[in-house]
Write a structure and sequence with these properties.
Rossmann fold; single chain; alpha/beta
């Protein structure tokens, strides 16, 4: 199955070197992924370099260029998502493509996920297809191990609140913390059903 990757998830997983591992849990490879057309441009200038640092963004350019760009398309879903507060045009494109094609969306935009319920029928159309960063961390915890994940995720701690808390030096149970964040968001976005990681629940 193809995987649509939003900009936030790409940057965070890319900086940790975990994007390939993440999409593998969805039965995909990088060749099966698509990203927004503006991503390379956004990595060169604008809010992303200010947020993640110019050098970090430059290091992600090659990975961004290796992922196919989502091609322009028309969709009734796009017309429904675009006017909704909390869903920016990029997320609207990804959600629309996912609803039409039944593809996974790897998303780091929790504000947009909370807004999906405001689009009639969207929660049902996207149920099981939205893969959050919390869910990815849980899945990777089992597949690569707690110690390896903590080491690889370290570059993200300054840039992501959930990662910073779950993998703080004082937190010895990162898996339980990640499940707590996942379950909290899952409750907030109901009736949308998030992709659930194949991991034991603590």
């Amino acid at each position: 199955m193809k995987v649509l990757v939003d900009t936030d998830a790409f940057c965070k997983l890319g900086l940790a070197g975990l994007l390939t591992d993440a999409v593998a849990h969805l039965g995909a490879q990088i060749a099966d992924c698509e990203r927004l057309p503006a991503l390379p441009h956004m990595l060169r200038r604008g809010s992303l370099p200010r947020r993640f640092g110019q050098q970090n963004c430059e290091s992600l350019l090659e990975a961004a260029d290796s992922i196919r760009s989502l091609q322009p398309f028309t969709s009734d879903w796009l017309d429904r998502f675009l006017p909704v507060p909390g869903i920016d045009p990029g997320e609207a494109q990804l959600f629309s493509a996912a609803a039409d094609r039944k593809q996974f969306v790897l998303s780091g935009d929790k504000r947009a996920l909370r807004a999906i319920v405001n689009v009639e029928g969207a929660a049902q159309a996207l149920s099981g297809l939205i893969v959050t960063l919390d869910a990815v961390l849980i899945a990777l915890h089992d597949s690569i191990g707690a110690a390896a994940l903590r080491t690889r995720i370290a570059p993200l701690r300054p840039f992501d609140t959930t990662v910073g808390i779950c993998f703080s030096d004082g937190n010895t149970d990162s898996l339980s913390a990640a499940w707590s964040y996942y379950n909290s968001l899952a409750s907030e976005v109901a009736p949308l059903v998030l992709w659930r990681p194949p991991s034991r629940t603590p």
